[in-house]
Specification:
Order of helices and strands: HHHHHHHHHH
Distance between the termini: 42 Å
Number of helices: 10
Radius of gyration: 17 Å
Oligomer: single chain
Strand content: under 5%
Shape: elongated
Length: 192
């Protein structure tokens, strides 16, 4: 690479490819190498690489790396003023905080949804709604979880985003199971 910035830009651009193909180890290796290199990098380029690292690390189960990357990225995302990047960064932070603090997770998803609404980012809107539903579920707010999950199902069914659709439908199954709606939970789980 000609520069550290080129390496971070490429790694950030490829994270979703690695994510969708299940190449978490490869992606994490590239992102870590790009982020650890010394050199001048525009803040937005570094931010996108950090968010990519946080997302891949979360999926790969490296929660400490995910937490560290996203906690560095969120303040920068708020300062830079790009609502698409802010929404995706906050949604990633919501996932990172799911199990540690479901209340904080829900607040991060709500803020992500506001930014996604301003920017028209439907991808983050659908994943943010599903994440918010699950965060409320983890917080024991089962009734409040159902609305965002149903909205996420509607959005993802129209868009064809099967992974997000399955995550939202599975969330509905979890809520239905907890509420004792066994037939509905079974149908939702089978659909997911």
């Amino acid at each position: 690479f000609r520069s550290v910035e080129d390496a971070q830009r490429l790694a950030a651009a490829l994270y979703f490819f690695w994510y969708t193909r299940g190449l978490f180890v490869t992606g994490l290796r590239w992102l870590r190498a790009a982020l650890s290199a010394e050199g001048q990098v525009a803040p937005m380029v570094r931010l996108r690489a950090e968010v990519g690292l946080a997302q891949l690390a979360f999926i790969a189960g490296d929660y400490m790396a995910s937490f560290t990357a996203i906690e560095s990225a969120v303040p920068t995302a708020r300062l830079l003023g790009d609502d698409v990047v802010l929404a995706r960064c906050l949604a990633t932070a919501g996932y990172v905080w799911w199990f540690l603090d479901p209340g904080r997770s829900a607040a991060l998803f709500e803020e992500a949804l506001e930014a996604a609404g301003r920017s028209g980012d439907d991808w983050t809107r659908s994943t943010g709604l599903a994440g918010l539903g699950w965060a409320r579920y983890y917080a024991g707010r089962f009734g409040a979880a159902a609305g965002p999950l149903r909205e996420a199902i509607e959005l993802t069914a129209r868009s064809g985003r099967r992974q997000q659709f399955a995550m939202a439908v599975l969330g509905c199954a979890a809520v239905e199971l907890w509420l004792g709606q066994l037939a509905a939970a079974q149908a939702s789980a089978q659909q997911a």
